[in-house]
Amino acid sequence: MRITKRTNIAVRLLMYCAANSERLVTKTEIADCCKVSENHLAQVINQLSQLRYLHTQRGRNGGMTLGREAGKIRIGDVFRDIEGEPPITECFADADNSCPLVASCRLRLALKDAVTAFYESLDEITLDALVCDNTDLLKILQPISCSR
């Protein structure tokens, strides 16, 4: 399975917000620290705020914070919400499926089980578990560290 750039950015963004939960954080500081373009980041911020993972505040003193407690954000949910249910292979696609083996292919079932196991393992992990007591990560995700 391949994780998209959008999901990678989303998880970095959420970790940054969790590591700086005592204040509003800005798109510019996240882009600088997480090494992502502000354009890509803006798209992800918009999506995460629509999904209520983020609360955004516009204006000169604006920024964003987590929309929920870090302990209630499951990484499996974030991946599902950002990635959607991408077809792993042609036989999972509703349209454009020309594989003649679909009706009796055991690999299809094995792949479906593997994807289910992948998401179930991520469901066990909360955003809080990624950030809490992770001293090295917290050092990296501080604005002072990011500008170096």
For this entry, give a set of tags:
148 residues, mainly alpha, Arc Repressor Mutant, subunit A, two-stranded antiparallel ribbon, 53% helix
Kindly, what is the distance between the CA atoms of the first and last residues, rounded to a whole number of angstroms? Answer: 33 Å
Shape: elongated
CATH superfamily, called what? Winged helix-like DNA-binding domain superfamily/Winged helix DNA-binding domain
Reading off the top of the CATH hierarchy, the class is best stated as Mainly Alpha
Estimate the helix proportion, in percent. Answer: 40-55%
**H-E order:** HHHEEHHHHH
Instruction: Provide the gyration radius in Å.
Output: 18 Å
CATH topology: Arc Repressor Mutant, subunit A
Largest sheet: 2 strands, antiparallel
What is the mean pLDDT?
87
Describe the strand arrangement of the main beta sheet, using strand numbers: 1-2
The CATH architecture comes to Orthogonal Bundle
How many helical stretches?
A: 8
**In percent terms, what proportion of residues is strand?**
5-15%
Number of domains: 1
**Which structural class do the helices and strands define?**
mainly alpha
Low-confidence stretches: none
Number of strands: 2
What does this structure look like?
- With 148 residues, the protein is mostly helical.
- It has one domain (5-146): Winged helix-like DNA-binding domain superfamily/Winged helix DNA-binding domain (Arc Repressor Mutant, subunit A), CATH 1.10.10.10.
- Helices cover 53% and strands 5% of the residues.
- The chain contains eight helices and two strands; from the N terminus they run H-H-H-E-E-H-H-H-H-H.
- The protein has a two-stranded antiparallel ribbon with strand order 1-2.
- Helix 1 runs antiparallel to helix 4 (75-83), helix 2 packs across helix 3 (38-50) and helix 4 (75-83) packs across helix 5 (106-123).
- The longest helix has 18 residues, at 106-123.
- It is elongated and about 60 Å long.
- The two termini are 33 Å apart.
